[in-house]
Structure formats: C-alpha cells, structure tokens
Design goal:
A 6-stranded mixed sheet has the order 7-6-3-4-5-11, covered by helices on one side. The chain has a 5-stranded antiparallel sheet with strand order 8-9-2-1-10, with helices on both faces. A two-stranded antiparallel sheet has the order 12-13. A hairpin with a 4-residue loop joins strand 1 and strand 2. By secondary structure, the chain is α+β, with helices and mostly antiparallel strands. Helix content is 35%, strand content 30%. The chain folds into 2 domains: 5-236, Hsp33 domain (3-Layer(bab) Sandwich), CATH 3.55.30.10; 242-289, CBS domain Like (Alpha-Beta Complex), CATH 3.90.1280.10. The structure holds zinc ion (ZN). Pfam families: HSP33. InterPro entries: Heat_shock_Hsp33, Heat_shock_Hsp33_C, Heat_shock_Hsp33_N.
C-alpha cells in the first residue's frame, strides 16, 4: 500500500529544483481528528501540504508555522511542520460549509477569505522570525507563491490540492513546488509554465489515481526530465503531552485552574490534534502547587 512521502529533486539538468509530496493519509487523519467539513478539510489540507513543502528545506529541529488570518468563515487556519516530515494543524471553525464553486470545486478561497498570511520560522537557537504578507486569493498555493516572491525573492510555481469524497473521506492530497535555480533560462521557465498549464487533471486527482509518487511525478512533469535526490516519510504528528499541558495549566495560575474544574476534574484539549487529556482533582492540586 502507498504511504505519504515527500520527494526532493532537480529537473532541466539541474537548472530547477522541485519538491513533491503526497499527503492523503496525513490530511485524512487531520479530518478525522478535527471532525472537519469538506471545505475545512481542503483548506487545512492545502495549508499542511504547503507547510511540509516549505519545511523541507529547514535544518535539524527547526520548524515553520503558517497562519492564514483571513476574514472568511473558517476564521483562521494554522499548520506547523518540520523537515522530518511531521505536520500538525487546525482550523478555527471546523464545521464551515459553503456552496461549491461553479466549477464543482470546494470554495477554499471564500472559506479562508482575505487577510494576512503569517509565516514564522523557529530556528535551532530558539529565535523565531515572522514575515507577514497580504493574501492574494485565499486559495493558498497562490498565497504561498506570493509570499516566497515578496519575502524571499524566490519565484516559484506551486500546486496544492485535496480531493474530498462525498462521504467526507480524503481520496487524494498532495502538492508540488518548482523553483528555477541560477542558470535557468527564459525557455526553461516557459517550459515549466507550459507543462503545468496544460495539466487537465488537478494534483489531488493525480495523487488519487497514481499507484506511486514516481508515476504521479511522470504525469506532472510530462516531457520535462527530472531526477529524484531524496525521499522522506510524511505524517500527522503532534508534540503535545500531558506534561506540556500541565505546564500550560501552571501558566494560567491557581484561579484559572480552579475555573476549569467541573465534577472534581478538568479536561484539556490540544488545539492542534484534538487529543483530550483528563486531570484528576489530585493532579490539579499538585499543579496548583507549582503556580
Ligand atoms: Zn496535540
């Protein structure tokens, strides 16, 4: 059985680089954990997929957080990823439902709305750098391309897609980034644009139809010769633990903790993965002692 993975490679005899990722199982796990509607699944799935692509060039335990702060009904979409292929994320309003676009596609742009895209990089020394750019369309791939161009002066082509079935399951999800490298000619850029422009199948359908990443890449790249340099596993993975949530409880103080207690216990829920953690009265008293 196929599993999610991220591939990195070159094309046009080294004059461009690409990153391709299959995220079908990862996005399905996010959908299941958060109980999301199709349009929420598509929005978070695209953002998590784009996050994995941008995170693939990070070093060691660095991480990247992407936040879509739009005025649409989803209110906010957040994803965090690292170069080990781990990603987590959530939408503020997971049940949002909107009519399909005339094309029959989920209206991610309307669900996200317009506003700012914030990109934060957490470096190995603990420093965090955040860049903000206005969103172009809320369709996410275009917004990330715009971010890369304006904040990092890198021109790119990006495809992100999530195919949600009528029963809400994710049938296919994935993404592709192509960036010209120094030495790329005008013809190279035209060849890339023309290849991506002539695809008559969306990337999420290509992922769903392909038996392997290599097959998907051949269909995506067409006549453009490409070379695979690296393959990495990809999965939905959260960093929460009961200990970490205890530290959060310490930070809200004795009164805050007292407010959380009902029926001699309290429950904490992780935003990122929707895992529920129960704290007994005894545990809460111990935590209060650390405040
Ligand atoms: Zn979690």
């Amino acid at each position: 059985m196929q599993h999610d993975e991220l591939l990195i490679g070159t094309m046009l005899e080294g004059r461009a680089r690409w990153v391709a990722v299959r995220t079908t199982d990862t996005v399905e796990e996010a959908r299941r954990r958060h109980g999301m509607s199709p349009v929420a699944t598509a929005a978070l799935g695209r953002l998590m997929t784009g996050t994995l692509i941008l995170a693939s060039s990070l070093k060691g335990d660095e991480s990247i957080t992407l936040r879509l702060l739009g005025d649409g009904p989803l209110k906010g979409v957040v994803a965090v990823g690292n170069a080990q292929g781990e990603v987590r994320g959530y939408v503020q309003e997971p049940l949002v439902d909107l009519p399909l676009k005339d094309s029959g596609k989920l209206d991610v742009g309307a669900a996200v709305g317009r506003g700012e895209l914030a990109v934060s990089r957490s470096l190995q020394n603990g420093e965090v750098y955040t860049g903000m750019v206005p969103m172009v369309s809320g369709e996410i791939a275009e917004d990330l391309v715009h971010y890369l161009l304006t904040s990092e002066q890198i021109s790119s082509a990006m495809l992100l897609g999530v195919l949600v079935e009528k029963d809400y399951h994710v049938a296919g999800a994935g993404g592709l980034l192509i960036q010209p490298l120094p030495g790329a000619t005008e013809e190279d850029i035209q060849a890339i644009e023309s290849q991506l422009g002539q695809l008559d199948t969306g990337i999420s359908e290509l992922v769903a139809q392909s038996q392997s990443m290599d097959e998907m890449l051949e269909r995506l790249m067409g006549q453009l010769a490409f070379h695979v340099l690296e393959r990495r596993e990809v999965e939905f993975s959260c960093t929460c633990t009961k200990d970490r949530l205890s530290d959060t409880l310490v930070s809200i103080g004795k009164e805050g903790i007292a407010d959380l207690i009902t029926d001699q216990k309290a429950e904490m829920v992780c935003h990122f993965c929707n895992e529920h953690y129960q704290f007994t009265l005894e545990e809460l008293q111990q935590i209060s002692g650390r405040c």
